[in-house]
Structures are given as structure tokens and as C-alpha cells.
Amino acid sequence: MLPRFDLYEPKTIAEACALKKEHNGRILAGGTDVVIDMHGGKEFPVIIDIKGIEELETITEDENTITFGALTRHRTIEESVFFKKYYSALWDGCSQVGSVQIRHRGTLGGNICNAVPSADSIGPLQVFDAVCTVASPEGDREVALKDFFIGPKKTILGPDEILKSITIQKLKARSGSCYIKYGRRKAMDLALCGISCMIELDENDTIVKSRWSLTTAAPTSIRNYPPEEYLTGRNIKDVDLDELGKLAVKDAKPRSSWRSSAEFRIALLDEMAKRAYQNALSRALEAKTAPPLMSEETGFNVF
Ligand SMILES: Cc1cc2nc3c(=O)[nH]c(=O)nc-3n(C[C@H](O)[C@H](O)[C@H](O)COP(=O)(O)OP(=O)(O)OC[C@H]3O[C@@H](n4cnc5c(N)ncnc54)[C@H](O)[C@@H]3O)c2cc1C
Q1: 130 with 167: CB under 8 angstroms?
Q2: How far apart are CA 221 and CA 249, in angstroms?
Q3: What CATH number does domain 1-51 carry, 3.50.50.60, 3.30.43.10, 1.10.760.10, 3.30.530.20?
Q4: If you count Cβ atoms within 10 Å of the first and of the last residue's Cβ in the chain, which end, N or C, has fewer?
Q5: Alpha carbon nearest to ligand 1 atom 28, residue
Q6: What share of the chain is helix, strand, coil (3-state, %, to 5)?
């Protein structure tokens, strides 16, 4: 039996923000974290179900960016040929969340706001320089995803704020990305550790931009700067994979738990960094042109 709660179903963002503040209410998106918490005995006297707010479900684009409404489901990304081909790290992450059923319910916004270090979409979003739009009755504000967390399960959201959308930067030609998750099983397992990267090459195979992120390697998902600094400006023929692996774990501070020792996670991340780089590199070498507009791509079924 779930503990007793009052349920509100706002139809606008403003209404949701006001209810959250008035009742110190718990936002419910897909519920795949919230309902599990409730089954575990956590009491949320007021639940605010935001699934009826259509504005939170859209995916839009302009020349430079793609914006995901907070209610974008992992399964929507997984089923998209467009994201698989062009924003592979995000596809890699979303398609490894839980199971098909969980991915049908679970949202990007919920994955981010739950703020656990093992969230599979956060690292991939970070390598596309994601920025969160946070809504409150005073209006919207933007916060880089890398600055959204203040600790495990803690975000910068204020009492009257909800996450409205997440915006990523569009990739250029000769860009590729990858997320690798290490879990003990192929499904229904949280990341023991994970690593995301994005690289962009110029016409001479010099890396002009690189972004990295670590999953389950610190109290929150973190941007990973040492490999970015090592790769940027370096020609691919001068990349030493052993050096890259060492740098990729320099800032990692995983904890030892019943699931794995910190030392094992570090050893995994060292190897996974090399593989993630090689995957991203081969994707970049194949990407002769910049990704087209989503609306131009067949097989894209989100609008
Ligand atoms: C069996 C199982 C397996 C799982 N496996 C994985 C996995 O492999 N990888 C992984 O990353 N996760 C996994 N999860 C966790 C979960 O599915 C994801 O975190 C999912 O993305 C949560 O999204 P949701 O919409 O269901 O969030 P909800 O449960 O609705 O919400 C999660 C939290 O975010 C808050 N919230 C949600 N949306 C907003 C918003 N727009 N603004 C403000 N606050 C908001 C809620 O109040 C709550 O605190 C698993 C869960 C289960 C039950």
C-alpha cells in the first residue's frame, strides 16, 4: 500500500510551480523514481502530476540547438533513428535505462531532477553542453547542466521551480560521441560506472573540440576536464590511448560500495575511456557533414 497523498494535475507550468510552492509538493513525471520511493515508505503528502502539461513534451530545434521538453521519454530518444545516428551518446544512454517499460515511462527531466550519480542520460547530455531551462512564477532562468547539482539527490531547484526543458548544442560535421555504461547485467541495472565523450575534428584530423563526462564516479555526474584538455588541439595520430585513459580517471572519485570497490571502478573507467574515444572517433570520421534538421530526416517520429 502506498502512503496516503493528495493528487494535483496542473495543465500549465505556472500552475505546477504555484502548487509546488504552496504545498511543498513532489513533482511526478513518469513516476519511475517517485513511486519506487513511495513503495519504500517515503511520504509525499502532495503529488503534482505534470504529465498533462503538453508544453513539456515537445522537442524543438533552431539552427544551433535542440530543446527537449522535460517530459521527453527515454524511449522517444531510443526509437529515433536521428538521435541514434547523430547524437549517439544520448541514444546510447537513453536506450540503456532500465527496461523497455521503464524507458516508456521515465523522462529526461525525471532522470536529471532525481540527481543520482548513476543517471544514464546526464553524462551524455553534458557532452553536448546541455543547458537547463528552469521555470518559476518569476519567469525562466537558464542553468548549465554541469551546475544543476549540489549533491546526491540535491539540485539547484527552488521551492517554486520546475525543470522546463534541456537544450543541447547541435554538432558540426566530423563530430562523433559515445556513452559506455558498465553494469553487471544487460538490463535493469544501474551503472557501476559510465563515461561519455564527444569529439569534433577539423579537415586535418585535429581535434578542435572535446567534451567528457563521468557517471557514478563522484557524488553527482561530473564534467571531466583532463581528457578534454589533452585532446583539444591534438591530431588523432598523436593521441596516446594509455595517457588518455589515465587522464580520464584523474578527477574520478568513485566510492566503494557493496556493488563494487572504488579501485575496480577506476580500472574500468580507464579502459572504457579508450573505447569511448575510439567509438566517438570512428563516428566522427564517418560524419562527413553536419547533422541535418530533425524535420528533414526520415524515421524521426517525435513531432
Ligand atoms: C526498475 C528500474 C530500473 C531503472 N534503471 C535505471 C537505469 O538503468 N538508469 C537510470 O538512469 N535510471 C534508472 N532508473 C531510474 C528512473 O527510471 C530514471 O531516473 C527516470 O528517468 C526517472 O524519470 P521519471 O519521469 O520516471 O521521474 P519521476 O519518478 O517522476 O521523478 C524523479 C524525480 O524528479 C523530480 N522531477 C521529475 N520531473 C521534474 C521536473 N520537470 N521538474 C522538477 N522536478 C522533477 C521528481 O519530483 C522526483 O524527485 C530505474 C528505475 C527503475 C524503477
Answers
A1: yes
A2: 13
A3: 3.30.43.10
A4: N
A5: 31
A6: 35, 25, 40
For 225-266, how does the pLDDT look when each residue is reduced to its tens digit (9 = 90+)?
999 999 999 999 999 999 999 999 999 999 998 888 999 999
Pairing of strands 131-136, 222-223: unpaired
- Domain 175-286: which topology? Enolase-like; domain 1 (3.30.390)
Which set of grid coordinates corresponds to residue 194?
Answer: 559510465
Q: Where are the domains of the chain?
A: 1-51, 175-286
Helix axes 262-286 and 241-248, enclosed angle (nearest 10): 130
The structure's pTM equals: 0.96
Does 104 sit in the ligand 1 pocket, CB within 6 Å?
no
Taking CA atoms only, the protein residue closest to ligand 1 atom 37 is: 110
**Interval between CA 109 and ligand 1 midpoint (Å):** 8
β-strand pairing of 162-169 with 175-182: unpaired
Strand residue runs (E) in 18-81: 26-28, 46-49, 59-61, 65-69
| Predicted pLDDT of residue 303 | 43
User: Strand, coil or helix: what is 223?
Assistant: strand
Task: Please tell me if the CB atom of residue 103 comes closer than 6 angstroms to any atom of ligand 1.
Answer: no
Phi and psi dihedrals of 234, rounded to 5?
-100, 140
